[in-house]
């Protein structure tokens, strides 16, 4: 899959992107609304891409079963509708008109159009945005099954949504297009450095932004992430560069209730609100901040975290 | 080109269910019958037009119904799909242009035929030649379906669609009335070639003393309109496919 670069006003909005879509894996691109539109504008080839846009609405006056029957017939899949309804977990809503469904269920039913697509690549814009927890799980299951035969690309502006069902996640912003390290890695190979016991403990974390040095008190920090070797300190929805490595930061912040929840993440445990379980092997931490931030949690770190929190 | 009846049928069934539950739209099925009831006694009393018989009143009922039922419903069916982005989704399925148009058109065609048959019964009109009459009505229905499709493709919401049929109403329904102004404005003779005016001529042909040529001329003109508009609508639909 290839995207042509797009310039606007001498500024590079979209770099040239080449995605190698392997089967059995879903790719996520986390980006803003404008770039999302630019990407989708390049996916006009109806024979290759099925494009599901967020503003897709549904035939409101049909019942759920009638809609599935229609989609089944129009795409000539000719499967048994009752078994499809079971598979979609829509049995209870069988006779309900789509306009009477809850917004989350209505979106979920609309998303079933993706299931019937015959194109080899499925592109979904913000599939999880309107869904409630339960519908998200169902969709994740269906997308997982679909990804066995098809390539799936998810465009979203929310990293949390991308993490639900993507194996590879890229971020696309004004700095370019780069992969995010979210894979659940095995135990860190890195040797823990023997830290000299400093006589004076420095309480402040020094960061840089626009050539200014900004000092933060550790409790202010939400979480710290490492992207391609550079360390970003997230405070109140903004991020700041930091010269220290994650391991150094981990040691320095240990006493302030910080926790290395992932190879490239340190989180302030005081700000963790929720542990989200996607599947038996994938977890995230939701933070209690203004912006709805979510940080991945390694499977290997879960036990450690549970011990820390006495749960 | 292969046409899959299953896919066209699926669209037909889906649209029928949507239409029958959309009371704002399905009420238009009653328009021909209401009009027929209103004009039933008015035929001879009206005493105007090319023939001072019931024919002009009947053609008035027909020409109005074509716009209010056939054209409006067809335009709304397409515009509603556009409003909800389902048309775009439909274009990504294996269904072809023709199947979508056939599925939607057949539904409106059947409904219009039934409603107009009732209107004809109520009016008690006796045509000179049943074959020519039926052919003219069926051709006209197709013509107005296609006009409705064009209106639908030009509008973004169903509200747009109900307004977009106004030009059709003005040009086609009003055309027979243009004959009354012909003496003052010779240019209005053009209106005589509108399909609605031709329908008036066809209906006015008396029981006795007509030739096949009398019947054929209006039929051929209506046929030409139908074929022309159909081609326009297919081209428009395909252009819309590329825009998306």
TrEMBL record, chain A:
GO terms for molecular function: ATP binding; DNA binding; phosphorelay response regulator activity. Keywords: ATP-binding, Nucleotide-binding. It holds the Pfam family LytTR. CDD domains: ABC_ATPase. Residues 205-311 form the HTH LytTR-type domain. InterPro entries: LytR-like, LytTR_ABC, LytTR_DNA-bd_dom, P-loop_NTPase. It comes from the Bacteria. This is ABC transporter ATP-binding protein. It comes from Paenibacillus solani.
From TrEMBL, chain B:
GO terms for molecular function: ABC-type transporter activity. Residues 59-232 form the ABC-2 type transporter transmembrane domain. The keyword DNA damage does not apply. It comes from the Bacteria. One of its GO terms (cellular component) is membrane. The chain crosses the membrane at residues 23-43, 55-79, 100-124, 130-154, 161-180, 219-237. The keyword Glycoprotein does not apply. It is a multi-pass membrane protein. It is found in: Membrane. Keywords: Membrane, Transmembrane, Transmembrane helix. It holds the Pfam family ABC2_membrane_3. This is ABC-2 type transporter transmembrane domain-containing protein. It comes from Paenibacillus solani.
């Amino acid at each position: 899959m290839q995207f042509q670069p797009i310039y606007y006003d001498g500024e590079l909005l979209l770099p040239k992107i080449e995605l190698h879509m392997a089967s059995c894996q879903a790719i996520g691109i986390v980006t803003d609304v404008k770039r999302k539109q630019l990407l989708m504008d390049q996916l006009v080839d109806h024979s290759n891409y099925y494009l599901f846009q967020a503003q897709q609405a549904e035939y409101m006056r049909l019942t759920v079963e009638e809609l599935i029957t229609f989609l089944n017939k129009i795409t000539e899949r000719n499967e048994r509708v009752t078994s499809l309804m079971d598979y979609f977990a829509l049995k209870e809503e069988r006779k309900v008109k789509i306009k009477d469904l809850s917004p989350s269920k209505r979106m979920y039913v609309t998303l079933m159009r993706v299931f019937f697509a015959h194109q080899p690549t499925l592109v979904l814009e913000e599939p999880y945005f309107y869904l409630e927890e339960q519908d998200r799980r169902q969709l994740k299951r269906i997308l997982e099954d679909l990804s066995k035969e098809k390539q799936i690309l998810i465009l979203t502006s929310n990293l949390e949504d991308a993490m639900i069902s993507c194996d590879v996640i890229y971020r696309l912003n004004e700095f370019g297009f780069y992969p995010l390290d979210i894979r659940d890695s095995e135990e860190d190979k890195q040797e823990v450095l023997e830290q000299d016991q400093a006589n004076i403990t420095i309480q402040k974390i020094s960061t840089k932004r626009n050539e200014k040095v900004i000092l933060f008190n550790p409790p202010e920090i939400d979480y710290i992430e490492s992207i391609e070797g550079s360390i970003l300190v997230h405070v109140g929805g903004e991020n700041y560069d930091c010269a220290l490595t994650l391991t150094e930061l981990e040691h320095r912040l240990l006493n302030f209730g910080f926790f290395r929840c992932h190879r490239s993440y340190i989180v302030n445990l005081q700000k963790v609100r929720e542990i989200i379980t996607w599947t038996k092997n994938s977890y995230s931490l939701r933070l209690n901040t203004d912006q709805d931030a979510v940080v991945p949690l390694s499977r290997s770190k879960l036990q450690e975290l549970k011990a820390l929190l006495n749960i | 080109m292969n046409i899959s009846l299953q896919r066209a049928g699926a669209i037909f069934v889906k649209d029928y269910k949507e239409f029958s539950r959309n009371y704002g739209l399905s009420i238009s099925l009653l328009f021909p019958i209401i009009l027929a009831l209103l004009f039933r006694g008015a035929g001879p009393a009206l005493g105007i037009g090319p023939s001072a018989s019931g024919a002009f009143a009947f053609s008035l009922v027909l020409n109005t119904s074509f716009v209010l039922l056939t054209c409006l419903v067809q335009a709304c069916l397409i515009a509603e799909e556009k409003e909800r982005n389902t048309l775009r989704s439909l274009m990504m399925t294996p269904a072809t242009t023709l199947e979508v148009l056939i599925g939607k058109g057949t539904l409106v065609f059947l409904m219009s035929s039934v409603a107009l048959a009732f209107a004809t019964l109520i009016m008690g009109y006796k045509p000179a030649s049943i074959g020519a009459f039926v052919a003219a009505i069926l051709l006209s229905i197709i013509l107005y379906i296609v006009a409705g499709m064009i209106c639908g493709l030009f509008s973004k919401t169903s509200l747009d669609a109900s307004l977009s049929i106004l030009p059709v109403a003005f040009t086609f329904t009003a055309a027979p009335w243009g004959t009354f102004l012909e003496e003052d404005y010779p240019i209005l003779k053009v209106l005589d070639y509108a399909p609605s005016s031709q329908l008036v001529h066809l209906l006015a042909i008396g029981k006795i003393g007509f030739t096949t040529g009398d019947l054929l001329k209006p039929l051929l003109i209506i046929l030409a309109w139908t074929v022309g508009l159909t081609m326009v609508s297919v081209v428009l639909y395909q252009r819309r496919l590329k825009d998306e």
